[in-house]
Amino acid sequence: MPTIASRLASIKSAIAETATAAGRDPAGIELLAITKTHTPESIREAIDAGQLAFGENRVQEARAKIPLLPSNLRWHLVGHLQKNKIRQALPLFELIHGIDSLDLARDINRIATELGLFPRILLEINVAGESTKFGFKRPDLHRDMQELLALDRLQIEGLMTIAPIVDEAEEARKYFADLRILRDDLQQVFGIPLPQLSMGMSGDFTAAIKEGATIVRVGTAIFGPRSSKNLLAGGTFSSD
């Protein structure tokens, strides 16, 4: 039976092979291990195998796990951030992936000012326009970008997306290409660097790498199937 260490090694190998075949430097792609519903013991297995960057979907779960684990880990928030959790989230995470509206960005900027923080963020884009997903739609982002850039506490480092569920990874590639094209357009129009593209998960990260992903978010392919319940807090989770 595959171990967390062997799965992790396999994912890293696939990242390196895909990047090299695409003419990219594998060192330019960060593997973020998504730990939603997985126990600190499982996370420690990944740490022992050399993984230091982790992502959580829920602030409450992260607050329970992070104190139980080594202090040198790097934590990202990859799920939807509720406004009433902003104050708790900002000190915990080095990068927040899912900034999905101008209103949320305004609230983060206000609270960051109160806390004396300069949060690093990614703007979440709903590239396929799915009604079930959070995120800016492309025309809205162009409309809102100037005001987002005026929020002086926020460090906007790039874009993030979740592709639609597809049968084959290559079918998701067009959505990842759309995100890269949008990023390039924003850089040109607004004259800003947006180096990060967070895209690709367990089933489609190779397609994302081919289209320029700098962060891939992989959970199930490392830790195995998720529990339906949070083993620390007893709460249920959706499938995001």
Task: Walk me through the structure.
The protein has one domain (4-223): Alpha-Beta Barrel (TIM Barrel). 39% of the residues lie in helices and 15% in strands. The protein has helices spanning 4-21, 40-48, 59-65, 86-89, 102-115, 138-150, 173-190, 205-210, 220-223, and strands at 30-34, 53-56, 74-77, 95-99, 120-124, 155-160, 196-198, 215-218. The chain has an eight-stranded parallel β-sheet. It is globular and about 50 Å long. The two termini are 26 Å apart. Mean pLDDT is 93; it is low at 230-240.
Strands of the widest sheet, in order across it, are 7-6-5-4-3-2-1-8
Secondary-structure element series: HEHEHEHEHEHEHEHEH
Number of domains: 1
Might you state the CATH topology name? TIM Barrel
Quick check: average pLDDT? 93
In terms of quaternary structure, the protein is: single chain
How much of the residues is beta strand, in percent?
15-25%
How large, in whole angstroms, is the Cα Rg?
17 Å
Termini Cα gap: 26 Å
Please state the structural category: alpha/beta
Q: Give the fraction of residues assigned to helices.
A: 25-40%
- The count of DSSP E runs of length 2 or more, i.e. the number of strands, is 8
pLDDT < 50 runs, ≥5 residues:
230-240
- Put simply, the count of helices is 9
Biggest sheet, open or closed, and with what strands and sense? 8 strands, parallel
The CATH homologous superfamily corresponds to Alanine racemase
